[in-house]
Design goal:
With 242 residues, the protein is of the alpha+beta class. The chain has seven helices and seven strands. It has one domain (3-229): L-fuculose-1-phosphate Aldolase (3-Layer(aba) Sandwich). A hairpin with a 3-residue loop joins strand 6 (173-176) and strand 7. The chain starts with a helix and ends in a 13-residue tail after the last helix.
């Protein structure tokens, strides 16, 4: 097989994987209408595959997925890529171990974004996936919105993780202030899974605050450590292994 044939085959596999991951979003109740997108990067080939902009999930096909280079230039496909591509592209540049990104406007995660609040780690369901609170970014400035909105969205996410010294692999999610959630992972399936878990823990956290009779109910650090590291890292023992 020639190098070009191999590249074409890998891109076709990416388009199918991204298509299936996008379809998983409405099935999981994470998007309504066209409010979401999934992308995947192949750094060796220098390409990103992403959902086309504004295409209904019901009519979308794998062939509709748009292939771009890392600068957002369309390499193949007749449709425009998601308008969130500059956000995805910037995150790929800065988070070098991330291979897939999901953006939704899922209800409960958006509630925290609109409130401008981190999603606290109140319980073990949260700790199994997110090693601490899921951060909320600062608000974008008027100038940032006017000049390069989607790119600046990526930049404010990276800024948030850098300023707080957070590991994007240990906390594979963020809520953008006034906007909504982005999640990521090593594969499209893992990125979608992070979105689903984020939505669940966002709802749980909101109701926990409604029910709590004390303000001191953050999960103790020793329980957070136990639950996170039993699933992640060299000492993980949850599940059946590789």
């Amino acid at each position: 097989m020639s190098e070009q044939d191999r590249a074409d085959e890998l891109i076709q596999q990416m388009k199918e994987a991204v298509y299936q991951a996008n379809l998983a979003l409405p099935r999981a109740g994470l998007v309504k209408l066209t409010w979401g997108n999934v992308s995947q990067i192949n750094r060796e080939l220098g390409v990103i595959v992403i959902k086309p902009s504004g295409i209904p999930y019901q009519t979308m096909k794998a062939k509709d997925m748009v292939v771009t280079n890392l600068d957002g230039e369309v390499l193949s496909g007749e449709l425009r890529p998601s308008s969130d591509l500059p956000t995805h592209s910037y995150l790929y540049q800065e988070f070098s171990e991330v291979n897939s990104i999901v953006h939704t406007h899922s209800k409960w995660a958006v509630c925290w974004a609109q409130a401008g609040r981190d999603i606290p780690a109140y319980g073990t369901t949260h700790a199994d996936t997110f090693y601490g609170s899921v951060p909320c970014t600062r608000k974008l400035t008027q100038e940032e919105v006017a000049t390069a909105y989607e790119l600046e969205t990526g930049k404010v996410i990276v800024e948030t993780f850098a300023e707080r010294k957070l590991d994007p692999l240990a906390i594979p999610a963020v809520v953008v202030n006034g906007h909504g959630p982005f999640t990521w992972g090593g594969t499209p399936e893992k990125a979608v899974e992070a979105s689903l878990i984020l939505e669940e823990v966002a709802e749980m956290a909101l109701h926990s605050e409604e029910l709590a009779v004390t303000t001191d109910f953050l999960l103790p650090s020793y329980v957070l450590n136990k639950h996170y590291f039993r699933k992640h890292g060299a000492g993980a023992y949850y599940g059946q292994g590789n």
